[in-house]
Each structure stands twice: as structure tokens, then as C-alpha cells.
Amino acid sequence: MNIISIHADGAPHRRWTGVWPTASPGAYIVPPGALVHEASGRTWASDYPVVAFFWPKVYFQVFMLLKENVTDYYCNMITPAFIARDVIYIDLDLDVTVMDGQIDLLDEQEFRARQFAYPAAWRSAVQQASQWLVQQAHAKTGIFHPATGERWRIWLSSVLD
Question: By the 8 A CB rule, do 77 and 59 touch?
């Protein structure tokens, strides 16, 4: 299956291939080496597994990056995903990252430049979602709790070995 990100105007953005569904609703595995195709034609792959999380009616998704010695996070502000044969969503530019414990809000200029092309409800939802994610990351709760990453790391080691 694929995870497909598009822009609000319908233009392609990014596509993850070789994605595995899991028994956990809304959780998908991007295995090490799975290709990611950029709209520019460039491809790349991570050398570590990634767990992609999507929730119904939520304006963000979370990539849990299970690197060798650390669990990092890349959170995209999105429209709620359409989940069928593939997972498809509209990327709304703003991102929250947690890398080596550092929490950052990324692509604010990109969001400001495009925000007026988005419905007001999307703009409001993106602002609320990004603030909530930053709060959760600071508190290390929910998806950002260290035990959550450890559980996925243990499960994946049994699957990948």
C-alpha cells in the first residue's frame, strides 16, 4: 500500500511505497529502505523503520522515526486522511518535529503564504493541532511518551528479524 500526500490544489506532493498495515487501526509501517517519491521526481528512503499514525477527524498525522538510538517524530498538519486501499491526505504545510528532544514548528512561512487558499476551518484546525502537538511533546504524553516508541520498537524487532 501507499501513503499519498497531495497539495490542496490536487497536485502531487509525496508518496511512500511499500507501506505495511498493522493490526492497530490507523498505524502503518514504512519499512527501512521503502522508497519515498517526491513530486520533483527525487526518491529517497530511510534506513530505519517508521510508524505512521493517522486518526479519524484529526488534522495531523505522526511519523514515529525509530532510529537506532532515539525515537524522533515528524508531524504533518493535514486534512483528515482518507483511508482505503491507500492512505491519502492533503498536506497543510505546517509541521511539528521532535528531533533529539528538540521541539520545532516548521514551515510557518509556507503555511502563511498558502493559508488563504484553505477554508477557514482548515486554518483554525491546523493552528489548534500544531499547538496541541507541541504541548503533548513537551509533556512527553500520548504518542510522545517514551514507552509508546519502545512498544513499537519491540514489536517491529520481532517482525523485521
Answer: yes
How far apart are alpha carbons 78 and 125 in whole angstroms? Answer: 9
Distance (Å, whole) CA 153 – CA 50: 10
Cβ neighbours of residue 96 closer than 8 Å, sequence gap 6 or more = 60, 73, 75, 77, 103, 104, 105, 106, 130, 133, 134, 137
Rounded to whole angstroms, the Cα distance separating 127 from 64 reads: 21
Q: What is the pLDDT along the chain (161 residues), one digit of tens a residue?
A: 999 999 999 999 999 999 999 999 999 999 999 999 999 999 999 999 999 999 999 999 999 999 999 999 999 999 999 999 999 999 999 999 999 999 999 999 999 999 899 999 999 999 999 999 999 999 999 999 999 999 999 999 888 76
Distance CA(46)–CA(72), nearest Å, equals 13
Of 70, 50, 44, whose CA–CA distance to 62 is shortest?
50
Rg of the chain on CA atoms, in Å: 15
Q: Under a CB-based contact definition with an 8 Å cutoff, are residues 94 and 111 in contact? A: yes
Choose among 93, 83, 71: nearest CA to 13. Answer: 93
